[in-house]
Queue: 3 jobs
Job 1
Amino acid sequence: MSLQSNAKIDGRGVVVTGAGRGIGRALAVRMAAGGARVVVNDLDAANARAVADEIGGTAIPGDVTAPEALIDAATETLGRVDVFFANAGIDGAGGGDSLQTPDDAWDRVLDVNVMAHVRAARVLVPRWLSDGGGGRFVVTASAAGLLTMIGSAPYSVTKHAAVGFAEWLSVTYGGRGVDVHAICPQGVRTKMLEEAGPLQELLSRDSALEPEQVAEAAVAAIEEGRFLVLPHPEVAGYYAARAGDTDRWLAGMRRLQQKVDAAGGLG
């Protein structure tokens, strides 16, 4: 596993949430390959144990929306949590008119995609500042958090919020030893993409990546000290275009929405 060791990963105590499959699993595998000691978290205990067994890590299953118990158990296991991958997320699409998504569904998506990050940072950052060792907080957001996502309103809005929280965390604590990164891919070959329906083609227009490619992009950003992790490099151009002429960007997105509606319809 240490053959691909990386300076900012090797020997570190790492927690990856939502690591039972997809991007989370790829991150856990890549962290272990880089020499890290990894705690694998997932709501699915069997998947968490399988990945932990595969990489020689430790499985600590559980719900990320109440992360203090996870962080305490991981600290006991690792001695110190140096890197926290806040990777777990849900789409909350539910089908139908997304504007009519009920409040309880909104609450659940907000809880997992945003507040889980806030609660984890609320526990970790004071510990990192107190012992002077610093830390690294990595949020798996989405290109939807930079560009807006056709389809699920809860997903798009919460991914914007996840990026916003990561930016705030970097601004507020980056000068005090807390490094922050936001992973913002487009289409990735995961269960979420498989279940995207009419959106699958749109999300894959610049090619759908394997989760392992996302993990490699995350490692490169960590090594280079870059905040934004853009596994699809095209996203940087889209992001600049959106900022440069927002009305033109929105007009283009409305045209894409019409194509999606014609292909099967999403609210």
Note: Strands lie at 13-16, 37-40, 58-59, 83-86, 135-140, 178-183, 228-229.
Job 2
Amino acid sequence: MKEPAIGVIELNSLARGFVVTDVMVKKAPVRIVSSHPICPGKFLIVIAGEVDDINEAMEAGRHYGGYTMNDFVLIENLHPYILPAMQGSAEVPEIRALGIVETYASPSAIVAADAACKAAGVRLIELRLANGLGGKAYFTMTGDLHEVQAAMEGAVKAIDSGLLIRTETIAAPHDQLKPTLY
């Protein structure tokens, strides 16, 4: 199922995360992509659906999230590579140049990954959100070197510089590195 938008809410309360998820799906016909605790003791909710439905669900989620909400984002016209990369099911025929973007928060990584894919002809390899990362997030992408560099610029411009940790580019990754990227 291809949805045109996603909404993301990050909370600092695990218990409130379940309540907010329930409120959001009761408020509008949206699909839960993920709703679970993340490191370090936060809760991440990602919903997908039509733009108006996402807006309605996000409004309810922000209201019920209240002071427990760390961050939120709504992305319209979501690039089709984002959800497969988040769910670990991205199909990448070959690894050429490699780009890595690391952020302090999951919502900023999603925004940056979407912007990167829209800025240049790259493929997302993986989009990891906080679990086992101490609350950080990162994504990896591949393509021709000039495309990876252009995508990296798009990603950096899309997020608040205070949330960006680091970007790295490897022009020609060694064959032994490639299997570790999935």
Note: The first strand starts at residue 5 and ends at 11.
Job 3
Amino acid sequence: MAFLIRRLLLTLPILFIVSVVCWSMINLIPGDPATVILGPEASEQAKEQMREQLGLNKPLVVQYVDWLDGVLHGNLGESLVDGTPVSQLILQRLPVTLELALGTFFVSLTIAVVAGILSASNRGTWIDYLSTGFALGGISIPHFWLGMMFIIIFAVNLGWLPASGFEPFFQNPVANITAMILPVLATGLRESAELTRMLRSSLLEELGSDYVRTAFSKGLSKRVVVIKHAVRNALIPFVTASGLQIAGLLGGLVVTEQVFQLPGVGRLIVESIEQRDFTVVQGAVLTVTVIVVLINVLVDVLYAVIDPRIALSKE
């Protein structure tokens, strides 16, 4: 518990820095932000109204404190395009991105665990060569290209699955699942390659340790030694890579959402940048960044669960 409390306290300065960076997005725009948003042909009166709407006529410290107070109360501002609350726009798009990220991570994790364990425990065999070949191919192939190939094969040619679109799960579960299969597989196959390599190398290192040789000398079966002893000790770097992957997915699914026309947060950011709706960009980036920071905290907690010595060493 002390380890968890200490780790949560350490995130406070990180979240403070994140808030400053996100707030600075408006103030770091070259030139006059109101002119950038409205365009150079806008009247001076319209620009002044925009400055007042954004609070740019106040001292910087007051601007930041007012903005942070609103964020802490769930108010991320309003869209400069249609006046819709930013928090409402994010809540509408966030479930799509979370579903895509979690589905991708589940596919990636399942493939990586199976392929990594089989490859490491059968080193030098055709299983190992097949697994490493898959990992190398997966890292080399961009997921957006794989996504387009899936659309051509399974949507256009075979007509088995839809090429784009999205339906909320609770409104139409079947349509939701069928629409998410191709983007999840396209991204999950690509991401599983990196985790497979990580788990294989980490597990091979553990299989060469003294305690593994001692376990074999006691007559334990290969399955017991690998699953119950070696795999758990090999999970620390694997968990690190997994945590970084799911954190990266939240901010890195923009291309996948564009290819499959999914209304996620990444696509919201792209659309808002094109419309110069910087308030929405600011709120969306802040939301994604905070989620990434919290995922990193969860990964640290998992370290202590997998190996209690980590928490004890921090005491």
Note: Residues 48 and 151 are 48 Å apart (CA to CA).
